[in-house]
Amino acid sequence: MYNIMMTTSKLTLDLKNGSYRAFEMLYDEYFDLLYGYVFGMIRSHIHANEIVQDTFIKVWLHRSKIDTSLSFKAWLFKIAKNQLLNDIKKKYSDPLFEDYILHCENNDLLVEPNQEFDFELFRVALLNAKQKLTPRQLQVFEMCKEESLTASEVAKKLNITEASVYNYLSQSISTLRNEMKNLSFMLFLFFMQ
Asked: The pTM is what?
C-alpha cells in the first residue's frame, strides 16, 4: 500500500515501472496545479480541462520514457504546454483558416493585436448566443462541435437524416456568427474543424 507521504520521485519511478496507483496519486497531486497553469494561459475551463486530460493520457502512454533524474513537474508542464501549442497549430493549419481571416479582416471582426483575448468572455458570449438557437439547432451544434460526433452518429442518435444534421449545423453556426460578431474569429478557431 502506498504511503500518503510518498515522495514524487518514488511515485515517478513506480509510474515508470507501470504502476497505475502511482499514476493516480500523481494525477491527484498535480491536477489542480496543472489546470491552473493551463487555464491561466487560455482562460477557458472547457479547453483547459481537455488539455489537462490529454496531458495525463500522454503521461500514462509515455511513462516508460520518464527520466526519473529530472523533475516530474517540469516534464508534466512541458507536455501540457506542447499539447496546447499543438492544438493551436491544428486550428491555424485548417485550410479554411486563411479564407476566414480574410473575411474577418474585411468585416473588422478581428481582435486588435494589442488587445488580450479573454476566453472567459468568449465562453459567456457563446452561452448567450446559444440561447438564440432552436432546441434542435443547439442539440446538433453541441453534439457535432462540442462532443465531436460525426454527422452520421448525430443522425442516428436523433433519428434524423445526415442532410438534416448538416442543415441544423449550418443554421446554428450562422446564428452564432451573427450573435458573436466581435468574437466570431474565436468561434471559428474552436468549432470550425
From this structure: 0.49
